[in-house]
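Posting here for the record, re: iron/sulfur cluster.
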Amino acid sequence: MNLIDEIEKLKKEKRAVILAHNYQRAEVQDIADYVGDSIELSRKAMLEQDAEIIVFAAVDFMAESAAVLNPEKKVLLPSLGARCPMAQMLTVDEIKRLKVHYPDAPVVLYVNTLASSKAYCDICCTSANAVEVVNSLDADTIIFGPDRNLSEYVAEQTGKTLIPIPEWGFCPTHLLFQPEDVTVLKQKYPDAVVMVHPECSKEMRQTADFIGSTSKMCRYARETPAKTIIVGTEEGLLHRLQKENPEKQFTIAYSDAVCPNMKLLTLDRVYASLKEEKHVVKIPEQIAIKARGALERMFQVKS
Ligand code: 13P
Ligand code: SF4
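Prediction output follows.
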């Protein structure tokens, strides 16, 4: 039996589902039951009533959110090394330190944070709903972290004052995109439209016809009449974009924009994870209760 058949067999035997982020390797996306962005995966994890095991083909903070929202299920992260560096950039001490300076400012945290940090925020957001979450708050000054670019983008869109926490948080993969690469591609494809993730720099965002989360980019790609689309996000998304829009041409703005953490999840590791039921994501109950509250408040915001 080949590896894909083995995975399918184990999935049935163990009542498991595989949820994969849009940045996963093509072969991992193809065996997943569902492929989506960070908010869609969290929602999907909650809807999988019959599943006993959720294999989360993504990075640590996404699997943690699934574990926090589904305490009765076994959530597996196939590679312990799949840790998002941005999520490691914000510590609980940093949040407490800034709260002393801005005691009345609510704390909004991007889901790209560890559960321990989420437990200290008022509400979470993703790049798909950050503007709506910030607009839903009855405050003009808001502590926001850890992505500095997303915080700048949300401040531009809402007109509110966002205090970045930490001051310098970033995604190493999205920082690789540079506007000069878009200029060169636009010369080659003058009719192309450009879509970028809000984790990109302001200069890069200024080149864009559309700015949004990975799922919003998928929707934009479907709906735009343009036939050629320049993409400013991790290269894994191009597999889904091309699959969903075979008649369109997608070109990445910088071909080495790879998230090495996402790519740690190979088919072999997904198989081993299912077979040996490793690595179980466990969040201490006191942290999970608070982090769950922050995620649930996010789900209540209409976006
Ligand atoms: P999305 O929520 O847009 O999928 O983004 C998650 C992420 O990690 C972006 O780098
Ligand atoms: Fe983290 Fe960036 Fe990878 Fe997204 S692309 S998981 S923010 S390192």
